[in-house]
Each structure stands twice: as structure tokens, then as C-alpha cells.
Amino acid sequence: MVSTETPWWLGAPTKLIKKTTLVPAAPNHLPVHTLTFAIPKDDSAFSGRAKPHSEVAIELGDVVKMVIPGYKPKSYSMSAIRDGEFDITFKVYPNGRASGFLDRLNVGDEMGTFGMTAGRHRNPGSFVGCIAFGVGITECLPVAQAELEKGDAEKVVLLWASRTMADTFWHDKIEDLKKKYPDRFQMAHILSREERQGCLKGRINPELLDQVFQPEDRSQARFLSVGTKEMMRMTDKMLEEIDYPMPQHALLPKSQKHR
Ligand SMILES: Cc1cc2nc3c(=O)[nH]c(=O)nc-3n(C[C@H](O)[C@H](O)[C@H](O)COP(=O)(O)OP(=O)(O)OC[C@H]3O[C@@H](n4cnc5c(N)ncnc54)[C@H](O)[C@@H]3O)c2cc1C
């Protein structure tokens, strides 16, 4: 018998309602855009491993799967959720199959999307250190904000590694957090290709992590790094070198059944 049901991995048709450019395309910078979509109204469209958008826990690193036609569902962090709409923020890679498709969408177009759990849980404690590599800030900043809002973290330090300052965005959001939490939130930039006052220069290494993250009580420190798999593995190794064994010191370790 042939099933007429839509497979769960196609998600539900989701309409693009706004496109905002955060980093314009330039010879030395890949563009970054935010796409705002209307949340599909009918939750019954989600089955199997697909979750409704309203159940995506941004603070636990859950993702939205964007179903790229003729390709596959690709993961993106939900960079914000509001009444009836959600955002993804993405970098457009040269010849990127998924990012290229997203970049070519026009307001009013529809594509399949669904929510998916990252299968992680939160490790509580008084110090949070976040390390974002490039566009990894799309997960790190919303998680850092959620940690500040929760209140048990006395200090949240966010280190953002970029090529140059012109590759960065969300300065207004970062300033708002600094103003709202002057004693609890600290932001540090490290730039690999630009000397700039007030910013660290070079690449992340264990000594630098030890210098940037200085918890009063080391046993309370929890870390999140977001970037490519290789960058995250490398960062975990560096944290272990400076005596923060992982996943004991992970902010969002994988839950048992998702390992
Ligand atoms: C859990 C999770 C969350 C994610 N969240 C986001 C997000 O919020 N925003 C976002 O922009 N992306 C995010 N990504 C990455 C995203 O899923 C795609 O991998 C990315 O958009 C590239 O896909 P593509 O098909 O366009 O590029 P591909 O066709 O896979 O690659 C095209 C070219 O770009 C290069 N490239 C691809 N990815 C990277 C990279 N990360 N860094 C440097 N070069 C690269 C490739 O080497 C290749 O040369 C996330 C990934 C995961 C696993």
C-alpha cells in the first residue's frame, strides 16, 4: 500500500515574511542575513522527530531544520522567536547549497521547516563561558541571554572569534545586554585578521581561554562552544588542558539517550 501521508522530514510549509541584511556582501566578507518566517499554524503537520516551532528550546541549543529542496533538511539555530514568527540568521557560503537556497528566497516564498531537539540538558552553576566561532554567535548569544535571564549564573562571559570586526553583527543586542547586566555580562572579541584596540588578536588557545574566563569558583564553571565540529572538539580539548574536564564542565551536555 502506498502511503499518502507527507513524510515527517518535509516539515510544514513556512512563509518568509522578512529578510534583513546584517553583514552586506563585500570582497573580504561573506554576507550574513536574518530571515523571519511566519510560524506554521497547524501543529498536526509535525510527526516523527519533527517538533512544532513553539517547542524549540533556544536556550538548550535546539534547532530549526530548513528543508532544502532536492537536498536535505539542514540545521540552523533559531536566533529569535516572537509571537507568530521566528528568525534564523545565516552566513552565505560561496556555492553553499543550503545557504545559497536560503539567500535566493524572496519574501512571500514558502519552504518546509520543522523544529528538532538537540537532545541536551542544562548544567546549572554560577559561571558561564561561551565561545562563538564566526556565525556560531547565532546560538551563543541567545543562550548567553537566556543564562542571564535565569539568574543562577552570577557571571556570563562571551568570547567571539571573528576574522575582522566587519564580520561581526548584533552590536545593538550585545550593547543592550551590557547595559542591562553591567556586573554580570562580559563580552570579549578575538580577531584573527585585524589589530583593533579593545580586542584580542590571533587565535584561541588554552592560555587565552584561561585569561578570558576567570570564575571565582572553578568548580562552578560551565562552557559552551559553537562552531564547526572540529572547532568545538578542539575547544573541548583546550578546556581540558586548563583543567575543565568535559562534559562535566559543559553548559549543555548531551542527554544520556542522545549520546
Ligand atoms: C546544530 C547546527 C546549527 C547551525 N546553525 C547555523 C546558523 O544558525 N547559521 C548558519 O549560518 N549556519 C548554521 N549551521 C550550519 C548550516 O547547517 C550549514 O552547514 C551551512 O549553512 C553551510 O551549508 P551550505 O549547504 O550552504 O554549504 P555547503 O554546500 O555545505 O558548503 C559550501 C562551501 O562553504 C564551506 N563551508 C560550509 N560550512 C562552513 C562553515 N561553517 N565555515 C566555513 N566554511 C564553510 C564549505 O567548505 C564549502 O566550500 C548550523 C549547523 C549545525 C550542525
UniProtKB/TrEMBL annotation:
Q: Which GO terms describe its molecular function?
A: FAD binding; oxidoreductase activity
Q: Which PROSITE patterns match?
A: FAD_FR
* Alphabetically ordered keywords of this record: FAD, Flavoprotein, Oxidoreductase
Report the InterPro entries cross-referenced here.
CBR-like, FAD-bd_FR_type, FNR_nucleotide-bd, OxRdtase_FAD/NAD-bd, Riboflavin_synthase-like_b-brl
Q: Where is the FAD-binding FR-type domain?
A: 9-124
PANTHER family documented for this protein: NADH-CYTOCHROME B5 REDUCTASE (PTHR19370:SF185)
Q: Which cofactor does it need?
A: FAD
Residues the entry annotates as binding FAD: 71, 91, 99, 138
Stated name of the protein = B5 reductase 1
